[in-house]
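Quick question, first post here. What does this chain look like in 3D?
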Amino acid sequence: MKIFTKRVSNTYAVLFTICILSLFSCSKKNPDVIVQGQAKIKVINAVQTEFKQDVFIDNEKLTTTSLAFGETSDYVKIPSGSRNLTYVGSNNLNTDANLNFTPSLTYSTFLVSDRNGNREIVNYEDNLSISDMTTAKIRLINLTPYFTTGINVTVQAGAQFVNGLLFKEASNYFALDAGAALRYNVVGSGSVKSIAATDLLPGKIYTIWFSGLSASTVEAHLIEDN
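> Answer (accepted):
Ran it through. Tokens below.
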């Protein structure tokens, strides 16, 4: 009777070990274990000549209202992993892209157009961490294709943030002291515009993107990310 009990116990121990190893092996091979979770995105219509846009993800409507040029949605939680994103214009022209979203990360996703009117979707990872509540945190993105020399951005009466930011390029994030204004212009152009210090509040995170058909009409759009 003692021998029988010992054999049964050993058998259960072996079976238990095999089950644990099998589960561990499956979790390593199953890519879903890695990508399970949610990401957050906001979507923006950055095409100056475009109709209002509805946005769909995997054929499900993401936006509550159609986005006119320059309009931004709120952040929306989506399943992470590979997703199909589609902008549908009120003229029934669609622009779509397959994009990969990492769990727990946050993204800004823009509809843009090149000089020939060809539209595409570009995606940028956002950084919503902030450690200094006495400064504003800003990032700059050039989304106008009409300036081959790019766009300069400087602190008013101070240092230059970016030099010759080209179409679809995004800068790093910068800390901007309270009370500082920004100046921007197309490289080589004397038409200089500004973003008032009162629009850039300490403790806030901003994505600033640029549009425009000419140096005199270049415009900065501010998105408050937090």
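The longest strand covers residues 81-89.
Confidence is low (pLDDT under 50) at residues 1-34.
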